[in-house]
């Protein structure tokens, strides 16, 4: 499945279960399975029954994030909105599936600077460094000490001074100002007494220090250190060998892209799906450079479970994306 984008200047391109793009210029694009469209400053995504691009209203978006089946947006006033295949929850956790084709305001959230969507839950980061969660909570990914799902956002207790957040499939992560990484939900954590459990409240992940950003996807976890090195693992933490001067990482389901200071893109990890460079190989470790790609300013990768995507971006030039499922 291929789509072609043409634009004078690409400012953001993101793949994560669904596809979104925000561009300064109008773009033309064609996609068989879904239609994703942009005019001016915002994108919506709809099923294939929409045959032509749609001009989205100028809603004043500051940031857009995409979960597995739902979307999140922050307006310029700091409020949060959501749409897509959403699920509502009663106070007792009962679920009702809904499909919101237009953004709906998430109550109780103000002065939000970042959002992240998981499989069935969402995270918001306040400008004061607090973290808020809502949605599905089957694995404790809301961080409130329970497994009860809820529709209303609540602040994650005891978690402050956070600078970045990541929602994954059934789990959540946060990076604090001091470079420590915290996580909760569906992953194995070993307590000091040796007990292994899935934490339903935030716990500090051992082995990570001086971290500036993290990227997750469908069981994969990577952390970027302030010195440009990349680290992985939620138990035994290891460094990705032979890789330095990295400024951004983007995790797919079983593979990772790293953007270096010089504008080159590198990839590593399991690549049985052939999503790294379009050529199916058994494994792409150690990191390999994507040939013919340069002057890249941003990378993103898909980790939407059974849907895998990859992309190549050339800043200021024509863009070609190849996706696979």
UniProtKB/TrEMBL annotation:
Pfam family, one: RCC1
PROSITE patterns with a match to the protein in the record: RCC1_2, RCC1_3
Matches recorded under InterPro entries: Ran_GTPase-activating (IPR051553), RCC1/BLIP-II (IPR009091), Reg_chr_condens (IPR000408)
Highest taxon, organism lineage: Bacteria
The name this protein goes by in its record: Chromosome condensation regulator RCC1
Organism listed in the record: Cohnella faecalis
